[in-house]
Structure formats: structure tokens, C-alpha cells
């Protein structure tokens, strides 16, 4: 029986000279399969909302067609299915109770957490936490109320909290076995703001 590329959008036969553990026919298919697997870790509560954008290298929001997108214009947002296999995707926060805590530079090269990240994650209920695009930060996703975005310094660390008027990049790279659910972050938000 001949083997085929594991990328469902391809299905090309794998050549006989490939190693036995090879599952894709090309680097392009390998990357597409990897992005699709990471996309499946994104909580359904985010995937089900049509509030997705892409972003360029400078983190400016874009539509899938490449035009500028706006966090205040739902006509420029997309379905998750449109962006799921694309790199550089983001989710628009619009004040409906979904929030994100952005912890910058909280992971060292070995993956150890900063004191602020350790204290914050200890206070979190089970919720989706992912590694940021830089690989040095974390995005803590959940539910809560944030009247306005805030940038904070606490215990030598930096955190930002947003609930509206912003988009946050979504990598689909869970941190530490984080579940694909949105927990109630109200207590964590209160702790950060005090």
C-alpha cells in the first residue's frame, strides 16, 4: 500500500526514497499540517466567533486579502476557517467578556517563567494559555470584565490586560498543557489591578 501526504489538502503519494517516519511530501505541506494542528488547540469559544484578522510583520491587522483591517470595523473581520491555516492570525476583542492578559518577556530561553508569570498562573483557573509569537511571552485567555486596556508593571514584570478595541495574536501553541477553554479571570484581573 502506498503512503500519501498527511496534509488533507494535498494527499500526494510519498516517494519511496523518503524516510519511514516522513508523513508529508514537502516542507510546505509539513508547515500547513503543523499550523492546522496548532489551530485545533484554540478554544471553540474563540473559533466560533467571526472576529479574526491576519497581521503583517509589523503587527498591523490585515484582512485575508491583504487590505488593512480595523478592530472597530466588523466588515474587516473573518471567520476562523478563513485564517486557520495562515500564519500571523489574531482575534479581535470587542467587549463581550472575552479578555486576554499579555505577559511580555516572561519566559527565558529555557522556558522558565518569570516571578510575575508564576504568581499569575498560580492564581488562574483552568484556562487557555499560549506562547506568544516571540516565544518569550504568554497570552492568558479567559472571561472577565476590563473597562479599558491597561499596561502594568508588577514585581519586575510587565502585563497588559485587554477586553475591547484591540486584537491579540493567536499562535495556537499552548503553554504547559493548558486546556482549550476560557476560564473566569475576574479574580486574576482584580489581583493584577491592586
Automatic annotation (TrEMBL):
Residues 55-177 form the DNA primase/polymerase bifunctional N-terminal domain. InterPro entries: DNA_primase/pol_bifunc_N (IPR015330). Residues 1-20 are annotated as: Disordered. This is Bifunctional DNA primase/polymerase-like protein. It comes from Allonocardiopsis opalescens.
Amino acid at each position: 500500500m502506498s503512503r500519501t501526504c498527511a496534509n488533507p489538502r494535498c494527499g500526494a503519494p510519498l516517494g519511496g526514497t523518503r524516510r519511514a517516519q516522513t508523513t508529508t511530501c514537502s516542507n510546505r505541506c509539513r508547515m500547513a499540517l503543523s499550523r492546522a494542528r496548532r489551530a485545533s488547540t484554540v478554544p471553540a469559544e474563540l473559533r466560533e466567533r467571526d472576529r479574526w484578522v491576519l497581521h503583517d510583520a509589523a503587527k498591523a491587522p490585515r484582512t485575508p486579502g491583504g487590505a488593512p483591517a480595523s478592530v472597530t470595523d466588523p466588515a474587516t473581520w473573518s471567520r476562523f476557517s478563513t485564517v486557520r491555516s495562515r500564519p500571523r492570525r489574531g482575534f479581535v476583542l470587542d467587549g463581550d467578556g472575552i479578555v486576554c492578559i499579555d505577559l511580555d518577556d516572561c519566559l527565558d530561553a529555557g522556558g522558565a517563567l518569570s516571578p510575575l508569570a508564576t504568581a499569575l498562573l498560580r492564581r488562574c483557573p483552568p484556562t487557555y494559555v499560549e506562547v506568544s509569537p516571540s516565544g518569550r511571552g504568554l497570552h492568558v485567555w479567559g472571561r472577565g470584565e476590563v473597562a479599558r486596556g491597561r499596561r502594568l508593571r508588577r514585581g519586575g514584570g510587565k502585563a497588559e490586560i485587554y477586553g475591547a478595541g484591540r486584537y491579540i495574536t493567536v499562535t495556537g501553541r499552548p503553554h504547559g498543557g493548558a486546556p482549550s477553554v476560557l476560564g473566569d479571570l475576574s479574580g486574576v484581573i482584580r489581583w493584577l489591578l491592586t
